[in-house]
Description:
The chain is α/β, with parallel strands linked by helices. Helix content is 35%, strand content 22%.
Amino acid sequence: MSGNLLSICVVTHNNEDMILTLLRSIYENTIGLKFEMFLVDNASKDFTVDIVKESYPKVKIIRLKKNKGFSYANNQVIDKIDSEYHVIINPDITFDTNVFKALSDYLAQNDEVAIVTPKIISADKSVQYLGKLSPRFVYLLAGRLKNRFRFFERYYEDYVMKDKTDKSVEPFEVEVCTGCFMVIRTEIFKRLRGFDERFFMYFEDVDLSRRARSFGKIIFYPNAQVTHIWARASAKKVRFLLIHILSMIKYFFKWRKF
């Protein structure tokens, strides 16, 4: 055992423009905690890996020859980590406080919690409602149509727990947390064998959340905050929209929950 409190894994794919900002956030703000940093690269065509090797030589890099998806890439570290808590984080996350200490302290003090996730905001300081209830078809439809039909607004606001997220200053339980930033007990992550690799991207975090709730609660922790440069690719590009829809279908048929 290495005695690391944290293992941190970021999956990259052509992220040379943002990866150093994330790593700077981690190394400059993670004070007083022993951690190991993994980067799993999904066959980048740019200089992501070279930049990290030069600037942060302590990062443990796993370079994949083929992009098999977010789930597969994250799972490559399962047998390499021996931490107390495992961090799954996107390359487009930044922060300027010791968020890992706040979140790991919370887990240490609350044995019934399996996963904790922070408050996530956009660059313009608006809240991203990423701690949610479990998806239902009407919720997902509401997410797409709420701006066109007011009828769907209440379904969307229920789904993303908007009122509670906006008003609560205390941690509260959610059913789903985002794969862009979560801290999970490493033992639980290993027992689950990580993400279901049938999900290339999208809904892999929903599926993991559902399985993790067999081991403990998922908590939204509003007193730690990070910024997420959210691309919302499925709303902009047809290819990602099709992947999103396929993942949704896989999820609903896996769990038989519509």
